[in-house]
Amino acid sequence: MNNVEEIFQKSGAILKGHFLLASGLHSPIYWEKFRVLESPIYTEQLCRMIADHFREQEIQVVAGPTTGGIILAFETARQLGVRGIFAEKEGAAERAFRRGFSINPGERVLTVDDILTTGNSTRQVMAAVTKQGGIVIGIGVLVDRSEQGVEFGVPLFSCLRSITPTYTPQDCPLCAAHIPLVKPGSS
C-alpha cells in the first residue's frame, strides 16, 4: 500500500457498500474525501504532491469546483504562492466563477478536484476557465478512480490511481442483488 492509499485507509475514507455517485453511476466503493480533507496534515501532504508536480509550469491561478475543490484549490495555491479560486454550480451542467473571482485572459490555470470518476466537474471548471480567457495548464486530483481513464487534452496528475468499478443503474449487480443504495455526500 502506498502512502496516499494509507492516508485514505487511516482516515476511514474508503467506504464499501452500494453507493450512488454524483455522476449517477453506482459503485461498491465510495471515496469519502472529506474524511481526509478534515485533516490539515493529510490535506497539506496531498496538495503538496499536486503542487510539486506542476511547480515548474508557471501556474498563476488554481481553480477547483465546489465543495471539496475549494479546500484543494486553496491549499495547492498556497503552496504555489498563487491565487486559489473556485467555480460554483450554475444550472445542471455548468459552473461559474462568482464572488468576484475572475481569471485574466492568458492566465495559466491549474484545475484541481478531489475524486475523478467521469470528469464532469473538472470539465465544467475547465469550461469556466476558458470562458474567461484562461489557459488550463493541467489537472490535479487526489484520486483517479475512472475505469477507462479520462482524457482532458492537458496533463492529468493523480495522487492515487485506483480503478474502482462503476455501473449504470440498469446494469448494476448490486441493485440486482437488492443491496440497499446509499447516496453519500451532498451533490
> Considering DSSP H and I runs of 4 or more, what fraction of the residues is helical?
25-40%
Broad structural category: alpha/beta
Straight-line distance between termini? 30 Å
User: Helical element count?
Assistant: 6
For the biggest β-sheet, the strand order reads 5-4-3-6-7-8
Determine and state the CATH class.
Alpha Beta
Beta-strand content:
25-35%
Query: What order do the SSEs take from the amino end to the carboxyl end, as H and E?
Result: HEEHHEHEEEHEEH
Specify the biggest β-sheet. Answer: 6 strands, mixed
Arithmetic mean of pLDDT: 93
Radius of gyration, Cα only, in angstroms?
Answer: 16 Å
Architecture per CATH nomenclature, i.e. the level-2 architecture = 3-Layer(aba) Sandwich
Structural description of this entry:
This protein is of the alpha/beta class and about 190 residues long. It has a single domain (about 5-175), classed as Rossmann fold. Helices cover about 30% and strands about 30% of the residues. It contains 6 helices and 8 strands. It has a 6-stranded mixed sheet, sandwiched between helices. Strands 1-2 form a two-stranded antiparallel ribbon. Strand 1 and strand 2 form a beta hairpin. Helix 3 packs across helix 4 (about 70-80). The radius of gyration is 16 Å and the shape is globular. The mean pLDDT is about 95.
